[in-house]
Amino acid sequence: MTQQDTSSQEDPRPKNLIGSALLFIGIFVTATLIGILLITGLIFPFAYRWYIGRLWCLIISWFTRVFCGLTFKVEGLENIDPAQPVIFFSNHQSAWETLALRIFLPPHSVVIKRELLYFPIWGWSLLTLKSIVINRKNQRASLRSLLEQGSRYLNEGLCVLIFPEGTRSAPGTVNKFNIGGAMLAHKTGYPVIPLVHTAGDFWPRYSFYKYPGVIKVKIGPMIETKDRKAQDINAEAETWMRQNLQDLRSDNVAV
Length: 255
Description:
By secondary structure, this protein is of the alpha/beta class. Helices cover 47% and strands 14% of the residues. It has helices spanning 3-9, 13-40, 46-68, 96-104, 122-127, 139-155, 180-188, 230-250; strands at residues 70-75, 87-90, 108-113, 132-134, 159-162, 192-197, 213-219. Strand 3, helix 5 and strand 4 form a beta-alpha-beta unit. The chain is globular, with a radius of gyration of 18 Å.
């Protein structure tokens, strides 16, 4: 029985309140400490800051398992060559993937919205991790930033992580893709690797509550992009992600 089926029979929120509250407190406290470490870590190489950021994500993953009974399982890691810079396309359902993907993906730059920088320490620390900042109110400027910074980081040997939907989607759905990620792939010739996850079933968007279970992640095969149109790249990645998300959810069993 899926988490959604369970919630329709019995409201699980009261018993999840304490765990969700403890997770929130854990994220709040450790994010401040890690943010300070990242900002002061500007005097060190990027590899140090990446290690600190990944360590924090591992800590949050441990909090999530202990406090909320929520874990994850990854399929398809063999499709990633750590020595090959790629552009990862991920579906976007919650805050979970903004943290957990850093645990098992190679060092990468993430596309983030400008508003996150308004948070003292937390937002500022994101800049130390070579994030690509975009202004969603100015699509032309956002695309220019993505193409310029994304190309630079790929050429430096970093991967780039993009949520092509642009905003969080409901569980089981994949919104229409923006063109920016595919244009970056078209311009640079670096391959795309799509991935999907079921985080929205257990860590819902805009919800305080987290539910026990196993988030499933599937990493797809590499999509070649050289001499291909951006629309074709998007279409192939979107088709794969839609189909495989449904396959994951069909047997996504909650604990």
